[in-house]
Amino acid sequence: MNENGEEIHLSNYKGKKIVLYFYPKDMTSGCTAQACNLRDNYDELRKAGYEVIGVSINDAKSHQKFIEKNQLPFTLIADTEHKLTEEFGAWGEKSMYGRKYMGTFRTTFIINEDGIIERIISPKEVKTKDHAAQILK
Questions:
Q1: pLDDT level of residue 9 (50, 70, 90 thresholds)
Q2: What are the boundaries of each domain within the chain?
Q3: In this structure, which of 20, 40, 70, 137 has its CB flanked by the most CB atoms within 10 Å?
Q4: Which ranges constitute the DSSP H helices of 2-108?
């Protein structure tokens, strides 16, 4: 479900390239930087044929606030049960300040017009403030 409670299926985007990006949490500094970089370069991404879809485990209400606050022109999937995040391997054990917890790995999948993953930008590679350039290269 997206921020409006609508079901989103990859089949809805048949014939289009998709930037499916997984991020940890709405309203945090890194996630906001990444979303805003994609927003600021959205026209260029669209001209290159990409549809942008963000995914986090936040709920639809949180996504609505995040979209409103940052004027995001793309949809955000509310993966509250982290099923999609797990399917794509973007869920696992993380560690911060010695504390271990389960969470989302910031990962981007570039999917071609046939629904095939062409490229993965891994958590260690993602540059939140320059993410669109990474996708377009």
A1: confident
A2: 10-136
A3: 20
A4: 29-40, 42-47, 60-70, 83-87
Question: CA–CA separation, 94 vs 123, rounded Å?
Answer: 11
User: Residue 89, Cα to own-chain centre: how many angstroms?
Assistant: 13
- For residue 25, count other CB atoms closer than 10 A to its CB: 15
Amino acid found at 6: E
Could you tell me the fold of the domain covering 10-136?
Answer: Glutaredoxin (3.40.30)
What does each C-alpha distance from 13 to 19, 28, 32, 51, 128 come to in angstroms? 11, 29, 25, 8, 25
Instruction: Provide the annotated active-site residues.
Output: 31
DSSP 133: H
| Among candidate residues 93, 94, 52, the one with its CA nearest the CA of residue 76 | 52
Q: How far apart are CA 60 and CA 48, in angstroms?
A: 28
